[in-house]
Amino acid sequence: MAPPAVATEATHLLHPSVRRVTLSVLTLVGLSAFEGLAVAAALPEVAAALGDVALLPWVITSYLLLSGVSTVAAGALADRVGLRAVFRGAVALFVLGGVLAGFAPDMKTLIAARVIHGTGAGAVNAVGLTAVGAVFPQRLVARAFAANSIVWGVMSVAGPGLAAILLSVASWRWIFWMNLPLGGAALLLGWSAMPGAPPTASRALRWSDLLLLMGASMALLVGVDAMDLSSIPALLVAGALGAFLLYRSRGRDDALLAPRHVLSAPLGPLAGAMGLLLVGAIGTQSFLPLYVSGARGGGTELVAGSVLFFVLGWTSGANAASRLAPRTGPARVLRVGTAIVPFALAAVSAVAWLQGPLYLLFGALVVAGLGMGLATNTALSLVRTLAPEGELGRATAAHQFVRNLGFLLGNALFGALMLWVVANLTGDVESVRAVLGQGSEAAPQPAVVAAIHTGFATAATVSACVALLASLLVPWATRTLRSP
What we know:
Structural class: mainly alpha
Distance between the termini: 30 Å
Mean pLDDT: 82
Strand content: under 5%
Low-confidence stretches: 1-8, 437-442
Largest sheet: none
Number of helices: 18
Number of strands: 0
C-alpha cells in the first residue's frame, strides 16, 4: 500500500498533510488506553452489579477474541480496499459496541456487546498500526510510534483517576459510554484523511479463512477457560483448525494469515515471543483490581489506581526502546526486555504468596511493564522493516493477531485458574461477589479473602513461568539482526 504523495513531504507529525491522520490515530490510541485500564478497574463493580461471577473473565476475553480475528481481517482488507473504508467501518463498530455495553442489563448481554466492541477494536488497531507505516514517511515512523506511547502514558496516568471519578459519582456504565464522544471525534477526523483504495485491484478476502481462524481461536479459548477434561478435545480442535488454515495458505498471495508472517523467521518467532510475554503478563494486570478489592479490601480509588503501574512501566519502556534501539541495536533491546518480564512477574507472585505490602507488588508491576515496553515496541517497529513489499497491512495484522492471542490467552488462563482455585477452596465462585468493593469498613470474610489471595498468587506463578518461555524464541527472532 503506497502512501499518499503529499505524506512524503511531512516533516513532523502535525504537518498539514498528515495532521488529521495523526490526531485521529492518537485519539483512538487514547480511547483504547482508557478502555483497557478502566474496564479492568471496573470489573469488581461490574461483578457486584450484574452477578454471574463465573462469566466475569469473558467480559475481557470475548472482547479480545473478536479483536484478534478482526485485526487480521482488517489488515487483509486494508491491503485490498484501502485504509479509508476499513477505518470507517471499524470505528463505527467500536463506538456501537461500547454504547451497547453501557446499557447491558446482565452479564450475558454485556458479553454480547463486548463481542461487537472487540470486533471494532481489532479493526481499529490494525488500521492505526498500518496507517503509521502507510501514511508517514520513514523518518517519522519511529516518532509516530513514540507519540502513540506518550498518549498511552498520559492516559495511563489520567485514565485511572477518571475511572475512579466515574465509578464514584456515576457508574461503570459511563466507562463504556465514553466511546461515543471520543470515537465520534476520531471518526470525523479520519473520515477522508485515510488513504483510499490501492491503485491495483487485488483478490477478494477469503471468508472461509476467516471462519477457520475464528473457529481455532474460539476452540483455543474454550480449552483454556474450561480447566478440565473438556479442554483436551477443544485444544485438539484448535490445533487442527489452525494447522489446516496455515496449510491451505502456503505460498498464496491472498492468504489471510500467511505462514511467512506467523511461522517463518524473523516475523514468526518475533510475534511468538511477544505473544508469550503477553500471556504471562496481561492476566496479572487485568485481574489485579479484583485482587486488590477482594483480597486487600481496597476502596474505589485504590482499585482504579492499581492498573496504573504496569502501564506506566510499559509506556516508559516503549519510549526508552525508541531511543535505545537505534544506538544499541534492536536485538539487544529485545533480549533485555524479554529477560526482565518473567523475573518481575516472579516478584509479583512472591509478594502475593507472602501477602507483602502492596507497594512492593506495584513496584514489581512497573518493572514488568518496563520490560514489556522495551520488547513490544522494538518488535512492532521491526515489523515495518521486515514486512515483504506490498504486505505491510497483513504482516502488521498478523503480528498484532499473535499479540492479541497473547492478551486473550493470558486473560483466559489467569482468570480461569484464579477462579478455579477460589471455587475449590470456598465451594462457590460467587462467594467472590460478597467481598467486592467492600472497602476497609465492611466485615471481612476470611475464607473468601484467603481463597482470592491463593488464587491470584497461583495464577501469577504460572504467568511468570509462561513469560520465561519467550526467551527461547528471542534468539531465533533476532538471528538476522545485528547490534551496531
